[in-house]
Amino acid sequence: MADNKKMVEDITSRDVDFAQWYTDIVKKAELADYSSVRGCMIVRPYGYAIWENIQKELDRRFKETGHENVYMPMLIPESLLQKEKDHVEGFAPEVAWVTHGGSEKLTERLCVRPTSETVFCDHYKDIIHSYRDLPKLYNQWCSVMRWEKTTRPFLRTAEFLWQEGHTMHATAEEAIQETEQMLNIYSSFAEEFLAIPVIKGKKTDKEKFAGAEATYTMEAMMHDGKALQSATSHFFGDGFAKAFGVEFTDKDNTLKNPHETSWGISTRIIGGLIMVHGDDNGLVLPPMIAPTQLMVIPVMQHKEGVLDKAYEVLESVNKYCRAKIDASDKTPGWKFSECEMKGIPLRLELGPKDIENNKCVLVRRDTREKYFVALDELETKIPEILKDIQSSLYNKAKESLYSRIYDATTLEEAKDIADNKPGFMRAMWCGELECEMKMKDEVGVTSRCMPFDAEPISDTCICCGKKAKSLVFWGKAY
Amino acid sequence: MADNKKMVEDITSRDVDFAQWYTDIVKKAELADYSSVRGCMIVRPYGYAIWENIQKELDRRFKETGHENVYMPMLIPESLLQKEKDHVEGFAPEVAWVTHGGSEKLTERLCVRPTSETVFCDHYKDIIHSYRDLPKLYNQWCSVMRWEKTTRPFLRTAEFLWQEGHTMHATAEEAIQETEQMLNIYSSFAEEFLAIPVIKGKKTDKEKFAGAEATYTMEAMMHDGKALQSATSHFFGDGFAKAFGVEFTDKDNTLKNPHETSWGISTRIIGGLIMVHGDDNGLVLPPMIAPTQLMVIPVMQHKEGVLDKAYEVLESVNKYCRAKIDASDKTPGWKFSECEMKGIPLRLELGPKDIENNKCVLVRRDTREKYFVALDELETKIPEILKDIQSSLYNKAKESLYSRIYDATTLEEAKDIADNKPGFMRAMWCGELECEMKMKDEVGVTSRCMPFDAEPISDTCICCGKKAKSLVFWGKAY
Predict the structure, then answer these.
(1) What ipTM did this prediction achieve?
(2) CA distance A134 to A174
(3) Is B275 an interface residue toward A (CB < 8 Å)?
């Protein structure tokens, strides 16, 4: 118990200093570490194993919907980046520039990709000629670089891992359908796998992606009530295709520009996992995404037969869940703490007395509830508890999200909510940038999204009182 | 048949111009394409699917042997690159330098990683303290950049995809064992999965990796008799650990530097696949690595029932092999050619007459042999033929390799072999750089490796006549 306390004492309490608590978890759960390059993180084995599980499940869903993986060059010539006006304005200030190859100065500087719309379009121009070549449904898993001023592991780093889908379609309708489909793939993945409920909607023009006609987003709420933009899906119309000269001969024998989408989710979502489910004892991982779902911990392992039995149990539970054993010479208390710190959903304690009685103890990470289970009942009990952890984490997060959505109809109400009630705020908006800026500057919240199919809560804009165009979710955001 | 000829006529014959044949295959089989950045390729869906199969199998073998995946920053500060003298000398001339972030000039320039020994060591210094922290067995899948003058898709590109393993061990013995183990994983993978036989051995000091104590390699022979260095595994001793200050307290309570290894295989191996198995009709893929192992091609698909039956057959064969259907409106002849160009191991032709007789035609890509098979026998016949293709491709490649290894004991013999007999040359060597350079400058071959456990073929060095230290495989190389 002394060990146990020691490890937990090393992390700041979540309610005392949320930002410090977050950093502590990232370090102590060995998810990521700082590197010698400003703003670039090292994704450690445990963090990377979570990313691999995210990749595996999403990649399956992408392929099921007809997408193919490719790999595009990581460097983009400056002239290519400049082909689409809004895009270059959005990204040029935050790219890293390669100016020399070996000892030679390059004739044109190259940026490390901040995103790859330009290189995909440049390639599509070469391979799309006829309606038969459409749709093109490409995706790539890679890292990208954005030279951010302030960085935090996972949430905002100069380099991060992500996937970026880039597709071309014969018609705008098809492209919009794709944009929606991909947002839905992200949101069902977040809800089913990560147990993170999200609000889906459209970004305002101010918040949309550089060069896009429309950006769809899913916004999750963190434990501190702040929003995390968790994945986005963009519809570009034919703007990029025109700028890059991507053309195809349609069935009616006329030359047209295809319509484009792009969509991405990044290692940022691991930050979301931490901040939605974690607690003062460390990380809490939903079983579906946990690299290790159950840890076998032998108690009094020096006693004859204990380790043998523990390995035997490990082998058998490994058939229906991802299990590991901690047979190191650390104390059981220390092992318990480590399991909690790493958010392993279930631990299985097995000592000489348990073996005598042919049973063991299961302890849930989320509720710390204990179960005394006969060894021959593990096969039904473990999957049952894992399933229950998954759904109860989701329900808890959903309750936490929906109990903290507040409606505001006046600026005074809005200010009161912003200052005193961490969470999302719903308010009507006229559609003008001026009012959006006023919410930012005077109330201190940014527009998160205009939710799909939302009922208006009043007829007038919260700022100017003119006719409202849409309901907006507002909030403080990461 | 006209279609068929047309497509094949588009590729240069392998024996007329091997280099052009190679480029034609890369383009026509849609494996890769050129990009707007000099020397950087676009890996297209079909090429990337091959890479994904390579990754999947190797990653499984890495994890089975206790390795964990991580992700390190892609940028390396110049000061970090310079910490190990030999290493920086080897790589500095060929790195791409980032000098600006956004509009600001960086205080220290950063290179895009050409390899990551330096960043791994920098991290290991922070996380290795005790013998309990060893071994560390890390690997990463990423892209690296080397600013090459002359480039060719897959074989030599400015940016390429690879994996790089970097491990730390308590003793030199353990590290050497790891270096050997990883070379063996590569070679068994190459032989079992890619059907590429290899010669394993140690590199000479001249050819070893910058900063390594020893480099192990596997060398494959291409159709034109030239060598392709296909994977390498390096033992570093404690040189990097010392340069980077990586230290641990050993069991005997003394402070020591751990011993390091690194090992990698890259998209270059896809070039090997092309050049070992391909022929004048296109790519030839071993079934184990082929993204599509069997293509169903309906014949006279406009006739009632043909497409339905073809999809039914597809569904059933998909249970035991990776199958697809080409139900496009192209002619069967064109589809056959495409299948051959893409090296799909088996095609299944199904027309109205076949359906009437409850049978179909299977055609092997490698030998073009035809089999008339009853539909209810496919389940035994297809796996049987795929297995046979796999082993006969391997046997053919092995025959091609071992029938072209020539022994030389005098420089005249060596020159004759180098000029007239494409393949590998075996000759004894004294161990001096001068003689190695003489082989290069006068004979026109480089040392490929000193094979493990080889019987000497004479007592004296082929160049200087002094006492020979080892047998060397020499050759022209990619």
Answers:
(1) 0.95
(2) 11
(3) no
